[in-house]
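To close the chapter, one final illustration. This time we ask the reader to focus less on the individual chains and more on the assembly as a whole: which components sit near each other, and how the overall shape emerges from the parts.
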Amino acid sequence: MTSVRTLLEKPWIWSFVGAVVVWLATIAFTGGYGAGGMVTAALSLAVFTVIVGVGQMFVITLGPGNVDLSLPANIGLASAVAMKVMGGSDSMILVGLLAALACGAAIGAINYLLIWALRIPPIIATLSASFIIQSVDISYGRGLQIKPPPGFADFTNWQVLGIPVLAMLTVIFTIGAALALQRMIYGRSVLAIGQNIRAAWLAGVHVGRIRFLTYTLCGALGGIDGALLAGYFRGANVDIGNEYLLASIAVVVIGGTSVAGGKANVPGVWGAGLFLVLLLTMLNTFGVSAGVRLLLTGLIIVGVITAAGGEKAVR
Amino acid sequence: MLQAIADIVRLNGAEKHFGAVRALNGVDFHVGAGECVGLVGHNGAGKSTLMHMVAGTLRPDGGQIAVRGNQEASYSVARALELGIRCVFQELSLCPNLSVAENTRINHPSLAGFNWRRRAAELIRAKLDEIFPGHGISADDIAGDLSIGRRQMVEVARAFTLTREPLHLVILDEPTSSLDAHTAGQLLSFVRRFVAAGGSCILISHVLGEVLQNADRIVVMRDGKVVAADAASAFDRDRLVAAMGGAEGHQKAAAEARKTEAGALRVRARPIRQQDDKELVARTGEIIGLAGLAGHGQTDLLLSIFSAASRARTGIEVTAPVALVAGDRQSDGIFSQWSIAQNIGIRSLARLRSGLLISPQREAELAEFWKKKIGIRTPDMNNNIYSLSGGNQQKALFARALGSDAEIVLMDDPMRGVDIGTKLEVYDLVREEAAKGRTFLWYTTETEELDNCDHVYVFKNGRIVANLGRDELTEEKIIQSSFGDAA
Amino acid sequence: MTAIAPGTVPKASPRGSAARARMLRGLLPALSLALVLLAIAWLNPRAISYFGFNLMLNLAIPIALATIAQMFVIAGNELDLSIGTFVGFVGCVTATWLRDAPLIGILVLIGSIGVYALLGALIHLRNLPSIVVTLGMSFVWQGLAILILPKPGGKAPEWLLSIMSFKPPYVPFPILAALLIAAVVHFGLMRTSYGVILRGSGGNAAALRRAGWSLLKTKIVLFALTGLFGVLSGMALIGITTSADANIGNGYTLLSIAGVILGGGEFVGGRVSPIGAVIGALTLALAASPLLTFMHIPPDWQVAANGAILIIVLAARVLISRRER
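The assembled structure is written out below.
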């Protein structure tokens, strides 16, 4: 009984509860048809939100005002870079992935450079950076060989026993991220900065270095995500990352991470990622139009943040 | 009853607690019509808390407040303004993005409608001219562009402007702290004129001469209580100092004869504003006190030393790892989301690792060690830090610093609002750690704590003004050097 | 003690330099606009004409209105990431209901301003981060827009079309409209007595509360004003494009934030400038497409030009305040 209670006290549990409820509602509607396929599809799609969600989570955990608005542009550019470097050849897959990673990390580093050098809030820094990245992407992505190598496309769609391999790898990655958050100096430092940046400095945390690392990490994850998306959808395009601006922030918030900073958890990102994908599946199954889908997504985000907002009144 | 009606404001048995800290402990206080009351006491004596109550910004936890003889059941800022009671707060309350005239408008709802800008500008200009002739401030100046002294002048003048609301009592909390001698004199003579014309005033100041010369009656506070109240003529400087310091009944800490051989140099630092060649020097095993009034550069120097430990700075030499014990726990020390153990471990993460990961076992061991050593009273070190009382939170911050590899420990007035039992335990620990070779730089506003120090630097206006050895260390001497009226 | 009292050091200098830095920063928006205009005049002198301005500043009015909308929330230290999709939503309402059933159309638009006011209250009462709330709302507005107008289409009401195609003598309409918007908002926010309170709430909220003002009310008013100018922006946009599309306003979120910052506004501290914001919007409108076209730069780089201008202006600002220190 106590274990159930401690489980219910975890901030991330509700995102999983939400995902399960939505899933049950959908299969009740279809009469059980396609229950397994739905999970498989949800896992494959949630992966992309989870990867950038983890990056965004670290950034948001740095404290109020920290957010990376350049992720969509970053994903778009990295997907083009990856596809161009791979050039449709299976032998270049790894090089292409590394190129996407480097491209994303560079964008993240530039973001922090703008924040630090121009002393401007992260929102406006990542925003202006995203303007420029977007244009680079548009002009760079034009007339390119944009299809992924067949091996890469197959890899991103590969399933074993109905479970996407990419999802398994992402689970391993998120376990690593959770360890980094709770058990490594890096994660502890991020949490400390998010709770109280001045106290963190006075407790000997290397504030500047940690913030730089966090923005670079978030950028790098955006880069990898772009490459994987291009493989999964068998092609890169400028708009491929567009939905990940809101999605990355939404999974962080719904997953129980505090927007006020200093309090984060990785499982919630998975729960919220699955919840969002399953919610879309459910609304599609119900035959709801695109407008209602967007409307409900928005209302749920506003509802969740309103419900969660009360906690942080305790200072 | 006649007496009560002549009062502008009267508090009976006012009490206020902040968590475990008793800021006010049953205070009786009143201000009569046409009277200037001087309020003096050390930092943390409860003056500001008392004034917040009179101004309506804080509600008392116990006691009554009466204005002009009427009990006020639901007293608030709005009610205070309505009754003609205003306060110039110590922390500036101008909007830095607005002009002087616009800032005046904020305090006067009736400054609206046609031509309000001109009326506001004329109102504040006339009052500035009256109080500070030759002030050189334009009503169109943006508040944020003004020097801190001029901002204070605007704020004071604004409190005396009159539109619809009456004006009976103005509370001036350290009104001259940012003014030079000339403008301070202008202000004080205006206050005397205002009082002579029948207005009332509460004057809080650390400059004792100001209070002695301008107040009709002086109230001395100490430890949340009124310890003396008498006509100003009945006080002189020495009697005020004695009443504030409370020389009565505190025993000097056991002054063991400590070995005085000079150890290796740990810190050498010169305050930025220092003009002569005085500098702070600390060696291994020494406990160095930083004394003087609050906000006279002690914390700034500690912070410079702290940052010099990681990045070289001119004028400061630091030869060993540094840790800091914060005095303002909320803003400088506590990580509110974390357990006690995590709060202690943050300074020592590198040593708590096994491999890449922080070992929960080692973290728990560190926490348990300090729980026993420093006596943190909690059933479980994994409880949230806020489950502790204020004194025990402070012990956890000490454990964070003492449990680290730091050989130099900076203490930024860490005993603010801590109970006496905790204090004595920590004093013993500090002496014990110093005997082992650690160096302590201890800024404190509580004079008796300086008895633990080997020698003491007294600060004034950001500079070191005195270096007192252990044998010449007396309360009077410290107060004398830190109050040294430069006016 | 011969120590120099703090006040006897020359006093005028810090204020003088602060005021000078502020003036320089205040001139920066106008300077950037002049620079862009000069570049256009140099590249294509014929563009500097009644007709040329009408064409180049075609979309400047809705951008300026959206920027003003964003400026109001920024004045209260908040941010609206939903203004773009809100403009799109208003556009869809304008091109359908406002033409077919004017009463319903008007009620819906007024209701949407009410929603903004409610958001302000919600954000204040629950102490919510406006970024997340408005990000969620951006989906709500977009969803509603798609529900109203699933496919691009609709038509603006005749009266709106005739207002937006108004051709006054001598001065091109967009310039006239920009002047009018700047003057009205400047008066309302910078000159009226309640405008002072609104800006003060961003400058020092605690001081305002101590003086007895309601911060809930200021937040509601600021958000409602954002809603109002968002509505005006959406209507103006449809008056120019004549038909609507649910995604028509999406770019306005970023444009409006950039416009406020270009115009000398700051994210915190209640420091905003309506005139600056309108100038910022005009600069963006000119720099984005006409200038690039004349420079023979492909339209791909339009967005980058906005980002680059933003970064250059912010860098210039840092330089100015650093030198004046």
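Residues 1-5, 246-255 of chain B have pLDDT under 50 and may be disordered. Chain B has two domains: 2-245, 265-483. With these observations in hand, you are ready for the problems at the end of the chapter.
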